[in-house]
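Obj.: predict assembly geometry.
Materials: sequence records (below).
Method: joint structure prediction, all chains together.
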Amino acid sequence: MSRAFVYGDSVRQDLRKEGVWSELFTREPLLFVVFCLIGLIFLLALIGPFLVTQDPNATALGYKNRGPSLTHLFGTDYLGRDLFSRTIYGLRTSLFIAVSTILLTFFVGTAVGCFSAYCGGRIDEVLARIIDLFLAFPAIILALALVTLLGPGLLNMILILVIVQWASFARLMRGQVLSEKFQEYILSSKAAGLPGWWIIARHLVPNTIMPVVVLATIDIGHTILTISTLGFLGLGIPPTIPEWGSMINAGLSYMRIAPLNVIVPGIAITIVTLLFNVAGEGLRDLSNSEQDQGMVL
Amino acid sequence: MHRYIIKRVGYLVFTIFIVSVFTFIVVNAIPGEPAEILTKHLFVGLEEAAPPEMVTELSQRYDLDKSLLEQYFNWIRGAIGGDLGYSILFNRPVTHLLKNALPPTLILAAAAAFLSVVIGLPLGIYSALRKGRLSDWIVRMITIFSISMPVFWIAVILILVFSVGLGITPVAGYGGCEYLILPALSLAIHSSASLARIMRTSLIDTMNKPFITFAKAKGLPDKRIIIHHALRNSLLPVITMIGMTFGSLLAGAVVIETIFSWPGLGNLLMKAIAARDVVLIESTIVVIITLFLLVNFVVDLLYHVIDPRITYE
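Observations (raw structure tokens):
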């Protein structure tokens, strides 16, 4: 029997009053720290332009491939551009694309998966086949084909990444709903004559969404990796926008004299991806152990 | 079982067909005349304007002026007979190019898969058996760190350390073992980490099952329990993962082959995309995806071998 049915909404509200955050802090201090760091990263992306003293696109040909100094914390690249400010602006690019992609993917994937499983029958069969087809493409190959088709650009990039990723969300959500939709509380709400959208929104989604949230958190990391891979291949992001992958690619020819240009953006990618990976896995462990105890987050 | 295999093969062929249609549409919908870009790429240079008479000649000679439907059917008809068309960029049959590019990619993917299994599985087993201890925590930190690094960056750092810094390995190229080690390692660091994580989770899961408790109660030695009872039963998700890893190695090869100038399918694809050699792009993508699907198909069939309880209906 479902947790929502056992506890009802009142328990959930009680938990909300106690505060999920203080609960998280006492039970999983490490995870709490990771969430704080993620918050810090978003803050850094937001206030980034006020932090950097140099224009990320200002070239200074007299200062090519310099080492770190007080004016250029990480040194400069092959056009004399400040590596520190380019790294900060790269964070903005990556986070903006990754977060908008995941938000869109989350909604599209969840909606399709939920709709497909809830309807069942012919509709479900066709949608499941379509989902399988999208999963047949290795992500990077599909992204490559689409990026050549649509051309570079931030919005194109988001669109491409949504097309590449929505299917795995839809498959997960579909499986979740399929395993839940014949539970007694769903059948009884149907018998009580509640409309379909109400059952989906109030009962199905709250009880099946947690694994999808975990996937979304981990997928932010994956998306950042994919963005940087496409950028490294010289595709996807227009050259005027600082992006970590294309920065590494540009630094490749000069890595003997200015190794920081390939090292720093890579470390930045790793740190951000790592934080989202740890957060996602922590959330998964948390939701698993709570399922065992019959608690609702 | 036989009916299942036939059904799966049918579905496989259908998927490849859809993939080919999709790839054809996407590649041909790319803005810009392929004939014009090819002319620039081959004869006059990218900045110059392509002379119209050269463009028309090129498109006539290679059927680029035919309708898309006609082009598609010519391509598919040829493909069934083992002829994928002609690469204008390399001035060679596509089949010939793919035949040459396939072995390097397979060698690279196989070497990387081998390394991943050899590093990943023992690491995962070790971590699972030491669950909750410091060594487990260290392994988990290392592996989650490894899956957070982009594969191409691992490659760049390996080049920086081993080729530029220490001068042990060649920077790029194709040849003996010394050329293989860095590309294979850069792919394997990422995938061995994800294998280790799956192995750990799966083994811990199995160790909590009642039949393990029973084996312990029977007084069987730990070694025997782990090797004969726990490992075999925890392999199923691991095998799935190995299959997926091999697939992602094929795809990851695109980046790695470009960095190391490894003459495989990925390298070919990137060159074809740069020159807009339409037939070559389509064929390479379809071949890569077919390989990917085939590997996963074989993995699916392996389930039954590993776990005879699984039957296909």
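Conclusions so far: Residues 1-17, 291-297 of chain A have pLDDT under 50 and may be disordered.
To do: check interface contacts against the pulldown list.
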